[in-house]
Amino acid sequence: MLGRRNLRIKVMQALYMWEIDRDVQQVKLDALLKNQIQRSVGLYLTDLSYLVEVCKYSMVDKAKRMAKYIKTEEDEKASTTIAANRIVKYLEENEQFNNLVKKEGIRNYVTDDVVRPLFMELASKPKYKEYAALQNPDLQQDKDIIHFILKKLLPADSNLEAHLEELFINYDDDNGLILYILSKYVDAFTEEKATFFQSLEVWEEEKKFAFDLLDKTLEHSEELATYIEPNLKNWEMDRVAILDLILMKMAVCELKYFPTIPVKVSINEYIDISKTYSTPKSKDFVNGVLDKVKNQMQDKGEIKKFGRGLME
């Protein structure tokens, strides 16, 4: 669902706990990683639930307007078109979605105090008014308004942000990527095929990569350090930022023990992660060290990758 970059970040966080306290048992680290992954699934389902509920609120809004003793012209024109949006109806009627929402208790996270202001903000936008005026929007028009909600409405709402930050400590790490991925699923949506929940099946398969990476980095921690230490120039190992060391160990672990992951992918991923999670100088530092380690390992034939293009 979120891809391996997100999983690498979660493994990094578990390894950070271990670096701080070497006495922590691996079963606790595995439990932490499992819990972090489950939170990502919960946030994914919560974002989808808010998408559905905001669109369905058009019906509540219409009913309230029609119940007024004196109705305005705006009340009379209130639209429920978005409640019948193909993507919204698909999610609303999808058995897998509803079962997962029930299993994870997601309904408890969706409140009218957040849904109503979100809908009112949406209803004030010209993009929504154009869509709401349509009698029978086509599939592309349905997709366009959902894109608008995912890209413009949800990310910009401070009330929703504060609410989700309270519920999910992984919000900052995951939410932007989740909304991006959901937009991609909207692009791929047809009335015959949707990818919203196929992704959860792939996510289950990808979890094995995360646990393998955690296990192998822990198992070979001392060995991995021997590749890094000679390339630190004037730096002592104990002076290197903890997160930099963790990221470099993870990268070297992938170079040596994950034969199906391309060399460039591993190195570029950890350089990119260092820009967000470590020090301002980490990007160049991690890049320089890993480049030297990679060249030395290749010269000694210690990187063995299977498949075309995996060495570059």
Give the SSE layout.
Elements: H1 4-20, H2 26-66, H3 73-76, H4 86-93, H5 95-104, H6 112-123, H7 126-132, H8 139-153, H9 158-167, H10 171-188, H11 198-219, H12 221-228, H13 242-257, H14 263-277, H15 282-299
Helix pairs in contact: 1-2, 1-11, 1-13, 2-4, 2-5, 2-6, 2-10, 2-11, 8-10, 11-13, 12-13, 13-14, 13-15, 14-15
Q: What labels describe this entry?
A:
single chain; 312 residues; mainly alpha; N-utilizing Substance Protein B Homolog, Chain A; 2 domains; 0% strand
What report would you give on this structure?
It contains 15 helices and no strands. It has 312 residues and is an all-alpha fold. The two termini are 26 Å apart. The model has no long low-confidence stretch (mean pLDDT 91). The chain has 2 domains: 4-200, no CATH class; 220-299, N-utilizing Substance Protein B Homolog, Chain A (Orthogonal Bundle).
User: What shape does the CA trace take?
Assistant: elongated
Q: How many individual helices?
A: 15
**Percent of residues in β-strands:** under 5%
Number of domains: 2
Distance between the termini: 26 Å
Order of helices and strands: HHHHHHHHHHHHHHH
**Share of helical residues:** over 70%
Largest sheet: none
What kind of assembly state do the chains in view correspond to?
A: single chain
State mean pLDDT (0 to 100 scale): 91
Strands, total number? 0
Q: Which structural class is indicated by helix and strand composition?
A: mainly alpha
Radius of gyration: 24 Å
Low-pLDDT parts are none
